[in-house]
Amino acid sequence: MSKDRAPSPLPTVPMEGVDESTWLDVIQKMDEVYTRLIDDEVELEKKNRELEQSQQFIFSVLGAMSDVLIVCDERGLIEQTNEALCELVGRREDQLRGSSLSDLLADPASVAAAREAMQRSDAPRGGQGIELNLLDRQGQPVPVDANCTPRIGANGKRLGTVWVGRPTAELKRAYHEMRAAHEALKRTQQQLLHSEKMASLGQLVAGVAHELNNPISFVLGNVHALSKYSERLRSYIAAFHAHQPEALLQQQREKLRIDHLLADLPSLIDGTLEGAQRTADIVHGLKRFSAMDPEERKPVNLVEVIERAIHWVQKGRPAPVQVLWTPLQACTVLGSAGQLQQVMMNLLQNAFDALSAVPEPMVWVEMGCTGEPDQPTVRVTVRDNGPGIPPEHLLRIFDPFFTTKPVGKGTGLGLSISYGIVEQHGGHLSARNAEGGGAEFILELPRA
């Protein structure tokens, strides 16, 4: 409606007792009222357009929702739904409006749970989660993770209930697939970890063979000596039981050196036991390093772990490398001794490999404490006097399968696996070039 209009004509027939000024006042008042009516109608049209836009916005939001929406009154009758519910149950909105929520539920347990939620007087404003089974378009039950929220009017009275639900069949299937993939990833990671440990162990075979050769050779030598001693004792005991004269027995005793034999027996037995125990310790250490580590964390003496790692890596080298080891008196961390030993062996092996062309190779291994008094941290640095790490390799040094070694000399997994092990222990592993030259790896672990 437009504000433009023709001016009101003045009355041509004057009325008795009413002058022209009075008519002008009346006409002016009528004009003001008419103008106000026009303004009110324009404002009303504006409000109607805004209301239509708001309704269209709400309908578009409801139509775009992937979750099902059901708005019920206080009796549980459906007042409003969305397209997702209509698609799920195979019914139009006008067919659903006015029907009972119970008609959409697949079993008595869902009906009872929904009725209890709608009749609950102390229902939380944020809603409560309920698992319901809806009937789909084929009449099959569909599990839905629903949230029941009370609908409150302007006077604070409960007008009904709003249900928002998401079918969980797809979510459960996706969850099971994700869990299966996670378990497969964990198995693969454990296999990679074990394979890398076997690769590290393979590099130490020569040193282990030499390490085992010493006590075994010592035991074999002692056993041969014990075998000869047993023959002498047998001859002497045979002469003793033959009741030979005392002079002959004494002569036989001196000839067979029985006194020397008896004096030498304790040391031979002790040496044999020591060699056997040493062999058992070596085998036990190898089994502990090669075994799959359990998930639980236990107190570990890090000093012993590092000393054992230095010992094994040194034994596996064709040429010795001088290692300057500066330990703490005692240092305990929570973790896996086998995994931490693997980390140290990888760091030491990398340092030794970098020194192949250095005339006087040296490696420094130092321990220290850092951090706050209530959160102490042990820091282990492994530094060499080699050529260092090229700057372009520093950012990729811990990437899986990244290696600068020739094909067949390295898998590129040692440092990557070590980085993951240290993170699992709540620590941090980093690399840099030392100020005096060479590479430096810094291992930080929380102390127990």
Describe the structure.
With 448 residues, this protein is of the alpha+beta class. 51% of the residues lie in helices and 20% in strands. It contains 12 helices and 12 strands. It has helices at 20-64, 83-89, 93-96, 108-119, 169-203, 205-241, 246-255, 258-290, 302-315, 337-353, 391-394, 414-424; strands spanning 68-73, 78-81, 128-135, 141-152, 158-167, 298-301, 322-326, 332-335, 362-372, 375-384, 428-433, 439-446. The strands form 3 sheets. A 5-stranded antiparallel β-sheet has the order 2-1-5-4-3. A hairpin with a 4-residue loop joins strand 1 and strand 2. Helix 6 (205-241) packs across helix 9 (302-315), helix 9 crosses helix 10 (337-353) and helix 10 packs antiparallel against helix 12 (414-424). The chain is elongated, with a radius of gyration of 46 Å. The relative contact order is 0.06.
Structural class category: alpha+beta
Number of helical segments? 12
Topology as H/E string? HEEHHHEEEHHHHEHEEHEEHHEE
The best one-word shape is elongated
Strand % is 15-25%
Number of strands: 12
* Biggest sheet architecture: 5 strands, antiparallel
- The residue fraction in helices comes out at 40-55%
End-to-end distance: 84 Å
Please, what is the average pLDDT?
79
| Overall radius of gyration | 46 Å
Residue runs with pLDDT of under 50 for 5 or more positions: 1-12
